[in-house]
Design a protein that fits this description.
The chain is built from 2 helices and 9 strands, in the order E-H-E-E-E-E-H-E-E-E-E. With 107 residues, it is α/β, with parallel strands linked by helices. The strands form 3 sheets. A 4-stranded mixed sheet has the order 3-2-5-4. A hairpin with a 6-residue loop joins strand 8 and strand 9. The longest helix is centred in the N-terminal third of the chain and has 14 residues. The relative contact order is 0.26.
Length: 107
């Protein structure tokens, strides 16, 4: 099982943590919501839990709880700029469908 970040995502995480002044990395998880059932959750992590899985890419840590890892195995986290918009993009090979608004997905 593995989670990866692109260089662009790692740079963004590094800048965000530096601006914050603290943090171990970024937590990637899923929650039940939306039309299709699941949505991604991102948050800063100040302390890694005993059950957390830690993956490192380009010097930055992605922390995943065991429940979410089932849905996220093989995911690549990217940071993209499209026109005036920018944000994280999830390249998750497990996704079978997404809702029309793009807010949720199913596996």
């Amino acid at each position: 099982m593995a989670i990866q970040m692109t260089e662009a995502a790692a740079r963004h995480v590094q800048r965000s943590l530096a601006g914050r002044g603290k943090g171990e990395g970024i937590r990637l998880g899923v929650r039940t919501t939306g039309c299709s059932g699941l949505a991604y959750v991102l948050e800063f992590v100040d302390e890694v839990g005993d059950d957390d899985q830690v993956f490192e890419s380009h010097g930055q840590k992605v922390i995943i709880d065991p429940k979410s890892l089932t849905y996220l195995d093989g995911t690549e986290l990217d940071f993209v700029k499209e026109g005036l918009n920018e944000g994280f993009k999830f390249n998750n090979p497990n996704v079978r469908g997404e809702c029309g608004c793009g807010e949720s997905f199913n596996i």
